């Protein structure tokens, strides 16, 4: 009996040993089969590769279009802000019972905000990145309009311009720097970008003129608040707080050279002579643009007796600005961007003489609109020039400084106009 049990145990052990040997012998073959199956699963087929080649450029092109449209909406908001002031100036003077010089503090406080935003833009861009800085700028605009809508006391009203100016400076720098970094059709895109600025400045007086004639005049800033909110939400959704390089890569833009200097970006920017020349050029240009768009309404009302609907002339000026930035692109390319500036300046001076010396309401309105057409290309031409000659890693910060310092012109020249108008009358606008 015991022998039978021992034989059975021996058979069982030998069977298990043979099964183990079989497992060991078949292990290399099973590993090889498994490797082939996993490799065939991981590698894409030819059809998959063709599909990726077809869809990836389409996705990149769509991303580029959405990003560009979002930045255009951002510049529309900046134009809307600048086009608002002119038609409301006579009503602001009336409500707060202030003279030309005091109401011109609006431009001074806006200038403080612009320069502050320009100074903050460089360190914030390095620390936070493109996506966060541009959204932060849009949020500052929301705060400013929320303070202005209730028509709070004049000191609070003008302080809101500081907040607003800083927000616009941040967005303006980031948007211009981003578009200037795009290598495909940069000139055309820059022209369209600033045409949307002109479109916003054209639309704002149409609305502001209506609000200037009612008791709740400050409710115009509720409209501005709604547009600013949509701008902030759109910027956050499209760029998702990402850096500029990451956003450019998503649209298929190859990255350029990197910073090889040991000095800080701010120091490098301040040592660029071209940056300071362009900043001074933009200072004079923006000063002229905002002065005409802001004070022409008061000039037409007081000197040409145009009535409360004169605010539409400001729309004509900024509408001309919009048209000029798109319609004259072919002229800029044919004559050359440098030479064409002299031609536009000469013609604009002649039209200003017509506004000053010819006592015609309709003639003055048409001439002001044509001045807008001629002045329109100046800003995008300057930004294109900056994009060509300034190193890529300094471009956004440099444009931020150029635009921010240049916006000082939107305070200095309009304030000079207000100071002269308080002493000599608003007819001093045209010779200035």
UniProtKB/TrEMBL annotation:
Residues 37-58 have a biased composition (Polar residues). InterPro entries: MFS, MFS_dom, MFS_trans_sf, MFS_Transporter. Residues 26-58 are annotated as: Disordered. One of its GO terms (molecular function) is transmembrane transporter activity. PROSITE patterns: MFS. It is found in: Endomembrane system. GO terms for cellular component: endomembrane system; membrane. It comes from the Eukaryota. The chain crosses the membrane at residues 100-122, 152-170, 191-212, 218-239, 275-300, 312-331, 340-358, 364-381, 393-416. Pfam families: MFS_1. Belongs to the major facilitator superfamily. PANTHER family: BYPASS OF STOP CODON PROTEIN 6. This is Major facilitator superfamily (MFS) profile domain-containing protein.
């Amino acid at each position: 009996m015991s022998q039978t049990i021992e034989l059975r145990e021996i058979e069982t052990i030998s069977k298990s040993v043979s099964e183990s040997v079989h497992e060991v012998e078949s292990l290399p073959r099973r590993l090889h089969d498994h490797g082939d199956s996993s490799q065939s699963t991981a590698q894409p087929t030819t059809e998959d590769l063709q599909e990726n080649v077809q869809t990836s450029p389409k996705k990149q092109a769509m991303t580029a279009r959405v990003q560009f449209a979002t930045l255009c909406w951002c510049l529309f908001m900046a134009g809307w802000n600048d086009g608002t002031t002119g038609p409301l100036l006579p009503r602001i003077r009336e409500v707060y019972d202030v003279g030309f010089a005091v109401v011109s503090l609006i431009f001074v406080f806006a200038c403080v905000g612009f320069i502050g935003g320009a100074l903050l833009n460089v360190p914030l861009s390095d620390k936070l990145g493109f996506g966060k800085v541009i959204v932060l700028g849009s949020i500052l605009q929301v705060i400013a309009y929320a303070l202005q809508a209730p028509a709070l006391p004049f000191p609070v009203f003008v302080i809101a311009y500081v907040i607003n100016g800083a927000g616009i400076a941040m967005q303006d720098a980031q948007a211009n720097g981003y578009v200037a970094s795009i290598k495909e059709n940069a000139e055309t895109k820059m022209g369209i970008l600033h045409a949307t600025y002109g479109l916003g400045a054209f639309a704002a007086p149409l609305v502001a003129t209506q609000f200037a004639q009612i008791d709740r005049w400050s409710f115009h800033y509720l409209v501005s608040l709604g547009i600013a909110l949509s701008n902030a939400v759109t910027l956050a959704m499209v760029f998702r707080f990402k850096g500029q390089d990451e956003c450019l890569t998503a649209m298929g833009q190859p990255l350029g050279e990197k910073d090889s200097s040991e000095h800080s970006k701010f120091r490098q920017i301040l040592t660029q002579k071209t940056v300071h020349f362009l900043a001074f050029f933009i200072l004079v240009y923006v000063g002229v643009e905002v002065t005409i768009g802001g004070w022409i309404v008061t000039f037409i009302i007081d000197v040409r007796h145009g009535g409360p609907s004169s605010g539409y002339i400001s729309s004509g000026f900024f509408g001309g600005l919009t048209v000029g930035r798109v319609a004259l692109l072919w002229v800029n390319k044919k004559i050359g961007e440098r030479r064409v500036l002299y031609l536009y300046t000469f013609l604009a001076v002649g039209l200003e003489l017509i506004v000053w010396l010819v006592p015609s309401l309709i003639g003055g309105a048409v001439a002001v609109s044509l001045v807008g057409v001629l002045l329109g290309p100046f800003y995008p031409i300057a930004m294109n020039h900056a994009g060509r000659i300034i190193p890529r890693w300094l471009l956004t910060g440099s444009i931020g400084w150029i635009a921010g310092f240049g916006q000082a012109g939107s305070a200095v020249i309009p304030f000079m106009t207000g100071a002269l108008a308080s002493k000599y009358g608003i007819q001093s606008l045209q010779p200035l």
